[in-house]
Design a protein that fits this description.
homotetramer; 368 residues; five-stranded antiparallel beta sheet; 9 helices; 19 strands; 22% strand
């Protein structure tokens, strides 16, 4: 129940204010030489910074790998790793222990388990995405060794938008030239377009100054996928992606290819016509399918979007119910971002990589 | 790999032009008295009709239950049922055996399995949703016995839209008064609003006359759910819904609650403030959360939308690749709808019910 | 819960006196040409005969394959098949509806599900092994195409025994020469030794004349397995075999290699010394390991034994509790074998093949 | 693939000579107050001691719980824990790096993963049973709160035997009076009979003096189980037990109830006649069924035996193949027990508890 994936299975454990968080990856094949530094680098990308855009919580998030590797080589046994929780200022949360914050998981968690987890959001905290990102960093490396590349970037903060260029959907060389060779990933706003970065940052800062929060969108993009990954009925690759992306905190929507906009298109315009590129290989001229036809990859870039609602922890006073079911007014203390999407970029990227790798392994079983 | 659900697991088998299709439901608890007629009724709602809106294929789709019941009572063993394929005019498909239809699963299926399934779409056909609908009809009955009610209806055909009334999202009594007591479900366009039905039907007929197809949206709505169903990290109820809905043919998007529109909202506006309705119970004044907070139900109505791309089988000539990787022009024969959503309404409803029932059973395991 | 296997997953449905029994195989790779007659032949081997050794129930047990094949070729989608129940003389069971037969599943089934399944043993009946045997026949064919061969034979009826020759455990050629080329499988007592067949048959007939029943043992033997199948910790191949064999009705014990006799051996005698057979390949001189070391196959023959208790349905009067918890004396009517093992031979063989095939597929995932 | 259990799922990670070993338990219900000291106590029972009977390796095996508890209370999220490896004298293993030890997992592990894990047996080491024992200690506590009690004890070392008294199989009060109230568990030879302890110890010491090893048997015994746990076809409780027990290193056999001895019994003698103990409850007069009828518990004590082959690491010179496939003579260095069973007692107990708890949770899903 706390696992992602079927064949490359990641079980995430930990709570935001316990001793440590971590994950166990079961199903990583033996014989792959892992770059541990790349894992730490990807983790660092989701780490809360010290600037206006991120929470003030500052943790090294140093990963310790406990098993599954021998001299950096995967050996076929589970890869377990932990990240110690160090800066757990739970006093920030004492004041909200007795209330149910609006649109937060306090109420629902207590309804499910009959108790509230310890302060700080516990199991529902975005902190729990760190192990997932580390697992995703491993998946990315495995895929990259097969020339499959996974990216995520911000496409909207509130109404400030930057759309994936339409040519990227059919031409991965142009996309990779930009995505792989520029420094956008380390920007405060990981969006491949510099002027959009600035507009988006302005938007967040304005919202933050008012103690409010704002939603946004993250786009995902993968290329190099062989045709034939996924399944025709249950466990379509699109459904696996929808599941993975919708598992991220604050996500309220998912689409791929033409997405919601495709609902008002005609078939004659939406159909992706095949073209031969040589005697045996084919591509499509357009890619409204988002690289997935009938739930199975067709070899074209896979792309889509994930919708994030605004974070519920605003800094202005709100009406809340307490445990005696009485309405009181209260302001949420603690460290909270003004927008969920900047730190969620590596999380979307991680889920993309984990899902594609799982589909890749599943496909080893499709033919006798 | 061909199963839906974890504890109430539905494995769908069959191809559109083989002897029969069907499913096995594993995990149905013993001691529930099933109404078999209601299963057949729901199946009939997805059945291709003889009118301008549906395909000309006319099958009785008579369900035969083979196991799992004794005098109508569930006995704890798997419920297996089959639906015979009778009207399999595979000659319609002979002409397309040697080509890859654009935006269809021909190409991807062959890439995955190394062979093309028999004509007629085989495993990728929408016909395979029939067993799923029958399983959903069973799930609906189990849920209804706990006062949980599941609905789906069309909210858009192309640009012709009818939105779920905002008051339904917080007030299930008003919603049920309309949804449970009117005849909209048996209409050609299953939309709760009669004038919208007419506009949508006009839209489809116009498209069909031109041999083209159009996309659309289906809304889902469930009420009566107890608070506490779902999970805080992996297997969020929202992720399970996203997976289920994205498993439906032609689906390109999923959202719940505020959905994509929520990405441009501020937290102060988006937060759903709790209100006490008596000394122990609470509800929220708004419901942008779509009944799900932190992946767990909060007792409010669960609602959202599913986006369908236009069907790829248009009746006008198209460029296609043949097996020799040469481009030819061809017109697709056979029976195809002009819009996927009218017949998909009971499918969305079925996936909604199956997902909620699975979460309901999962919750029996949450407390010691 | 009603499935066998992880990657080649067989879900068995049906009850002994319902309309049909059957199974769905999910995970059969595409592109294998199946011999349907061989399936029926293996089914016929477990069919109740008309002689003194089997029950009087006579059913054709004709398999109908509903999906997953196209012109005899597997296409990657689930293989579903049914076997109609025809000769359901449920009146035989009316008299025992109200009592709990000793050492039968009546009492425990009712405790589990809160109701008794329909007469005739329902879900617990040995009849439910027929779909499993059919699935096993498919698994056997897939394995045979990789030169992996699976056998089962009787090694004891009561105290009448015939042991697997020790040379077979290290020399599959000798074993196959006998197992594959003689007619022992179609004998009333499927034991490779003719004189043992006769002694065993005498034993059963004597028991049957007294209205009593007797237990026995079945040996399994597989050869051609590549080294490296299984897993070192959980899901050892030995554990998967133990699970499969212990799922058979009336089984009370399982052992492989030296088995229980190995508990009193010294390590110096038990160790299987490797010998080189050429520059790159090795075998062991003895095979107390039963082909499995550390839960993983070593390329040597896999062998072991399954212990069956006597069937509980004896024909003499017994003390039984009725539903009012009162002790009454009663004689069980209906058709019952005097010994479970003759008809269980193809069942053991089926479970052996299913387990090895599952391990074979699992191994496609072990290396990057 | 590295998990035990379906609803109370234990994923074990780590290798014997890496930084740490541990496990994640997914599916532990919320709201149970855990006694951490009892976990450590059970771990200590499998710890290598300093006496003639155990290996010389001396590790504190201190468990650190990282998640899933809040003030000792389970909170519904995964319980992760680690045990650091401290005393890893891998130089002992350097000398065997290049050879395949007879009847050890060296050869098969390399065949599976294409590489040999680091020295010391790596993943195949008995050290990996420590996390399983800790998980079992948790399962035992949960079961004990429902009055279900789990025991394991040695019943044979070589040919020195002590059998479970026949009256224990029908009378749990007598059994518990002895098992729960005497100090046999902390003995060097955890067998409930003191004189048998002494004979068994003599047997081991004699074997050890000759540098040889010997096999043995462990009995398991559980009482307090409600009737109705298990399943009638796949996943019989007996099959789940067979799987769990056969997952233990060196296990070559499993039986329950009458076991292999039952194969030569007649049905008239083997049948367990029910007797009413009051107006609504029943028991059986004998218990050849081992508490399991048709794969489902009948409320009587569950008991059986597990067969262990002798440990393959003997201290005398043996013929081994090296990596060049050449035969050399070599003596295995390092710390190894002369008999696997003394330290395996808590492991059998742990698997018993984990299996019964899983069945207990599964049964929450059997009735509507």
């Amino acid at each position: 129940m706390n696992s992602f994936g079927q064949l490359f299975r990641v079980t995430v454990f930990g709570e935001s204010h316990g001793p440590a968080i971590g994950a166990v990856i079961d199903g990583c094949p033996a014989g792959f030489e892992l770059n541990s530094e790349a894992i730490q680098e990807m983790l660092d990308r989701r780490r809360p910074g010290g600037n206006a855009l991120g929470t003030a919580r500052n943790e090294a998030d140093q990963i310790e790998i406990l098993s599954g590797l021998s001299n950096g080589m995967t050996i076929g046994s589970p890869i377990a790793f932990i990240i110690r929780n160090r800066d757990t200022r739970s006093q920030d949360y004492n004041s909200i222990k007795e209330v149910f914050r609006p649109s937060h998981a306090d109420f629902t968690y207590e309804a499910k388990y009959g108790l509230r987890e310890q302060s700080g959001g516990g199991r529902s905290s975005a902190r729990l995405t760190a192990p997932l990102v580390a697992a995703g960093a491993i998946a990315k490396q495995l895929l990259a060794s097969k020339n499959i590349h996974c990216y995520a970037y911000i496409s909207a903060i509130g109404n400030t938008r930057w759309e994936t260029p339409i040519e990227w959907t059919t031409d991965e060389k142009t996309a990779l030239a930009h995505l792989a060779n520029t420094n956008w990933q380390s920007a405060k706003i990981p969006c491949p377009n510099e002027s959009a970065q600035q507009s988006m940052q302005n938007c967040i800062e304005e919202i933050a100054q008012n103690g409010d929060t704002i939603g946004g969108e993250i786009s995902f993009y993968a290329c190099g996928m062989p045709a034939g990954l996924g399944a025709p009925l249950a466990n379509k690759l699109s459904a696996q992606l929808a599941h993975a992306m919708s598992s991220i905190n604050a996500v309220h929507g998912f689409e791929f290819g033409s997405g919601f906009a495709g609902t008002s298109m005609k078939g004659s315009a939406h159909n992706d016509v095949f073209t031969a590129i040589d005697e045996t290989q084919a591509r499509t001229a357009s890619n409204y399918s988002g690289g997935l036809q009938g739930g199975i990859s067709n070899g074209m870039p896979i792309y889509g979007k994930v919708a994030f609602k605004p974070i519920s922890s605003i800094r202005t006073p709100q009406q809340m119910l307490n445990k005696d079911n009485q309405l009181i007014e209260k302001t949420i203390e603690g460290r909270h971002d003004a927008c969920p999407v900047p730190r969620a970029v590596p999380i979307v990227e991680a889920h993309l990589a984990l899902t594609l790798l799982d589909a890749y392994l599943q496909n080893r079983l499709s033919k006798w």
